């Protein structure tokens, strides 16, 4: 199918992509790989991190991403949303005498407010992302072609994306609402914005992903462009060969140190693990319509994923074929 | 890297890992998401019940498979008992103690707290307050707070010899330590009450006249987020102040003491990957700094050196040794598989060594071997719990 081959071009043709998933499934890996694929297609990309986590920065050998976009490499830029700084800036633009604004932002109340006021951090984060997407207050006057958000774990990400609707319903008027209406317009624009889900071929991540599909469609009104199934074990043997290996294992009665036995035993482990993974991959693939294009990411034999590992993932994807694509 | 702070913590006094599990009345499993906290909590709970202690596992994770493994239809927000006969079948002693499981639910816990501390007529006013509804579900720390609250409640009911708590997967896995105090600080702070005073009286004078009495700050806030939202918030604050503050304060203090007490033992759960490991070390440092009892690290899914670490078994030699026994077109693939497995084993060993170096010799580190099969019954959990000793 045509859309199948061009899934990546479709995805990267958007302006804003939220990468979502349960904690620990590889959201950061997918975010960076997508950014690399976009840069390969000659796009200017901004990778955004939300929340307390600093995984993107760590992979790029930096402690933390800065609050305003900094070039990481190629055409890839990185930034981290800082809700406190956003609220400060917001108050400074909306409160008339500057000294009052200063008094507010310097008072201890300000920090309490930021923690206790429902959704305030989320509003500030969304506002920031929106301004990056539309290119407001960009010092270089050079808009990003694509903004990729490495979202917090599903629960937090969901409350983030639900907020504009809730807020508009709750408050109805005022400058914040006006801004949230613009944000909502951007989020629900299916041509411009989409979700990408990341999961593992394991019970909980798969269930959470399947449960999230209707939420994306109905509650958020946002399309899921692709689902990435991370850490898929290799399957080097076909079913006949697998039975052959199992049969040989039963015959090889030699000592546990026998090289043949060890080789076969190792293969059996891989086969068993992949068999379990297949159950969950089948489950998620049965939701292909809701989950967009399904992309398997092979297991990486490392405990410390490097940029090169991620680059290998990105280059295994089809080139986008768009203008400027380098194969 | 070990500084004084670490050696001064409770770790020297703690009688090792098995000791912590044997003597603690509360075991708290912390660590980042996806490392297997719920499974390990269940294994510890099972071990507790099998050793004759009446045990409850508090979890936040609705894992169907694990519920199946425990012989339950699903986890529920009511206390459920694990069937004794299946515990016997798993290899337990003749008369295991009762093992219960409870799934935590933030909203329920908050609601029942309100019911506990508020008078009958106030309860409804609080429960319908929009700010309260938002807070009980969404506020940062509300899930952590709820877990602590439930822990306190069950501990003081005194029905169990052992409580195993599987903590919520917060971005910062130790948020729950601060949760009681944080919520208290936020809502009980005099700043709030002072600033919001005009709004507290809004019911009497009407929202219309508010600005006359409000500070410039509140006027601005009202402009930004709307008077109704502020009134809701103020309404909640007032209820909080009048009805709930004292009860919650006492509660938060008690929870703090409970966590710092001798009866509580913390375990840091991780897998050998870099981020979960870093999180576990962070956790360890925090627990030491707070002078709480640290039981040890449980490193889950470690690829064991059982088959592969002997140097003489180089993949190429092995394949050569198998010519004629194994079909030759299998050999390159088997060799690759073996090579990969060896990489996993070496990586995990390196991770464990790195952890040992970072936390010093006194901290207990317990590796749990990776299993390619899922936990599918109490027997599997039992086998896992044997590794914890």
Radius of gyration of chain A: 23 Å
CATH homology superfamily name of chain A: P-loop containing nucleotide triphosphate hydrolases
- Portion of residues within helices of chain A: 40-55%
Please tell me the CATH architecture of the largest domain in chain B by its name.
Answer: 3-Layer(aba) Sandwich
Structural class designation of chain A: alpha/beta
Decide which structural class fits the backbone of chain B. alpha/beta
CATH topology of the largest domain in chain B: Rossmann fold
Q: Can you tell me the CATH topology of chain A? A: Rossmann fold
Strand proportion of chain B: 5-15%
**Domain unit count of chain B:** 2
Highlighted features:
heterodimer, A: 327 residues, alpha/beta, Rossmann fold, eight-stranded mixed sheet, elongated, disordered C terminus, B: 389 residues, 20 helices
Concise description?
With 327 residues, chain A is α/β, with parallel strands linked by helices.
Explain how this protein is built.
The complex is a heterodimer of chains A (327) and B (389). Chain A has one domain (2-233, 287-314): Rossmann fold. Chain A has 15 helices and eight strands. Chain A has helices at 2-5, 7-12, 27-40, 55-59, 83-94, 98-106, 108-116, 120-134, 154-171, 175-187, 203-220, 239-251, 259-285, 288-291, 307-315, and strands spanning 16-20, 45-49, 70-73, 76-80, 146-150, 193-199, 224-232, 293-298. Chain A has an eight-stranded mixed β-sheet with strand order 3-4-2-5-1-6-7-8, sandwiched between helices. In chain A, helix 8 (120-134) crosses helix 9 (154-171), helix 8 (120-134) packs across helix 10 (175-187) and helix 9 packs across helix 10 (175-187). Chain A is elongated, with a radius of gyration of 23 Å. Mean pLDDT of chain A is 86; it is low at 322-327. With 389 residues, chain B is α/β, with parallel strands linked by helices. In chain B, 57% of the residues lie in helices and 11% in strands. Chain B is built from 20 helices and eight strands. Chain B has helices at residues 4-8, 16-23, 37-50, 64-69, 84-89, 106-117, 120-128, 130-138, 142-157, 175-188, 190-195, 197-200, 202-205, 210-213, 216-225, 227-260, 274-289, 315-321, 331-359, 378-387; strands at 26-30, 55-59, 80-81, 99-103, 162-166, 264-270, 294-302, 365-369. An eight-stranded mixed β-sheet of chain B has the order 3-4-2-5-1-6-7-8, sandwiched between helices. In chain B, helix 9 (142-157) crosses helix 10 (175-188) and helix 15 (216-225) crosses helix 16 (227-260). The two termini of chain B are 28 Å apart. The model of chain B is unreliable at 1-16 (pLDDT under 50). Chains A and B meet through helix 7, helix 9, helix 10, helix 11 and helix 12 of A and helix 8, helix 10, helix 11, helix 15 and helix 16 of B.
């Amino acid at each position: 199918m045509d859309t199948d081959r061009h899934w990546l071009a479709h995805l990267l043709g958007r302006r804003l992509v939220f990468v979502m998933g349960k904690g620990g499934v590889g959201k950061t890996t997918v975010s960076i790989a997508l950014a690399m694929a976009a840069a390969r297609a000659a796009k200017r990309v901004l990778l955004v991190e939300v929340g307390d986590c600093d995984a993107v920065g760590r992979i790029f050998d930096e402690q933390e991403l800065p609050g305003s976009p900094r070039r990481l490499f190629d055409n890839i830029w990185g930034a981290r949303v800082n809700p406190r700084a956003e609220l400060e800036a917001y108050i400074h633009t909306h409160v008339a005498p500057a000294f009052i604004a200063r008094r507010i932002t310097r008072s201890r109340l300000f920090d309490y407010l930021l923690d206790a006021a429902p959704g305030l951090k989320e509003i500030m984060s969304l506002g920031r992302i929106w301004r990056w997407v539309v290119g407001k207050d960009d010092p270089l006057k050079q808009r990003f072609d694509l903004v990729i958000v490495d979202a917090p774990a599903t629960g937090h990400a969901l409350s983030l994306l639900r907020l504009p609707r809730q807020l508009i319903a709750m408050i109805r008027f005022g400058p914040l609402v006006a801004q949230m209406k613009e944000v909502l317009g951007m989020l629900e624009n299916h041509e411009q914005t989409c979700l990408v889900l990341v999961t593992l071929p394991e019970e909980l991540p798969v269930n959470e992903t399947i449960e999230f599909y209707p939420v994306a469609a109905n509650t958020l009104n946002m399309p899921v462009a692709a689902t990435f199934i991370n850490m898929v074990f290799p399957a080097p043997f076909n079913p006949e060969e697998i039975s052959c290996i199992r049969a040989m294992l039963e015959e090889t009665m030699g000592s546990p140190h026998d090289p043949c036995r060890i080789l076969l035993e190792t293969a059996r482990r891989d086969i068993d693990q992949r068999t379990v993974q297949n159950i969950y991959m089948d489950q998620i693939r049965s939701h292909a319509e809701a989950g967009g294009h399904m992309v398997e990411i092979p297991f990486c034999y490392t405990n410390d994923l490097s940029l090169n590992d991620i680059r290998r993932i990105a280059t295994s994807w089809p080139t986008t074929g768009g203008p400027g694509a380098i194969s | 890297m070990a500084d004084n702070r670490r050696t001064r913590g409770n770790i020297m006094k703690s009688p090792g890992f098995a000791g912590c599990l044997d003597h603690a009345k509360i075991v708290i499993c912390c660590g980042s998401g996806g490392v297997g906290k719920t499974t390990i909590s269940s294994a510890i709970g099972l071990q507790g019940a099998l050793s004759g202690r009446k045990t409850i596992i508090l979890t936040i994770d609705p894992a169907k498979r694990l519920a199946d493994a425990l012989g339950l239809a699903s986890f529920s927000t009511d206390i459920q008992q694990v069937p004794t006969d299946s515990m016997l079948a798993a290899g337990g002693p003749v008369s295991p103690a009762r093992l219960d499981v409870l799934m935590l639910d933030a909203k329920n816990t908050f609601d029942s707290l309100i019911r506990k501390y508020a008078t009958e007529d106030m309860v409804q006013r609080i429960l319908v307050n929009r700010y309260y509804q938002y807070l009980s579900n969404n506020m940062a720390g509300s899930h952590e707070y709820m877990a602590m609250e439930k822990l306190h409640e069950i501990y003081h009911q005194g029905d169990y010899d052992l409580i195993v708590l599987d903590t919520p997967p917060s971005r910062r896995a130790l948020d729950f330590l601060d949760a009681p105090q944080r919520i208290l600080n936020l809502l009980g702070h005099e700043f709030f009450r002072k600033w919001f005073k005009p709004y507290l009286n809004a019911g009497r004078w009407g929202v219309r006249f508010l600005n006359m009495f409000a500070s410039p700050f509140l006027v601005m806030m009202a402009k930004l987020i709307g008077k109704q939202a502020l009134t809701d918030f103020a309404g909640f604050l007032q209820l909080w102040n009048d009805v709930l503050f004292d009860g919650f304060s006492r509660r938060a203090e008690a929870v703090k003491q409970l966590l710092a007490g001798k009866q509580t033992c913390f375990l840091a759960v991780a897998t050998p990957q870099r981020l979960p490991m870093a999180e576990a070390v962070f956790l360890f440092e925090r627990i030491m700094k707070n002078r709480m009892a640290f039981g040890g690290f449980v490193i889950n899914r470690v690829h064991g050196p059982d088959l592969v670490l002997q140097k003489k078994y180089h993949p190429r030699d092995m394949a050569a040794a198998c010519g004629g026994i194994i079909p030759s077109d299998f050999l390159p693939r088997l060799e690759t598989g073996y090579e990969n497995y060896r990489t996993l084993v070496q990586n995990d060993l390196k991770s464990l060594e790195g952890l040992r170096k970072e936390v010093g010799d006194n901290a207990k580190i317990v590796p749990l071997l990776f299993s390619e099969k899922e936990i599918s019954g109490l027997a599997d959990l039992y086998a896992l719990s044997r590794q914890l000793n």
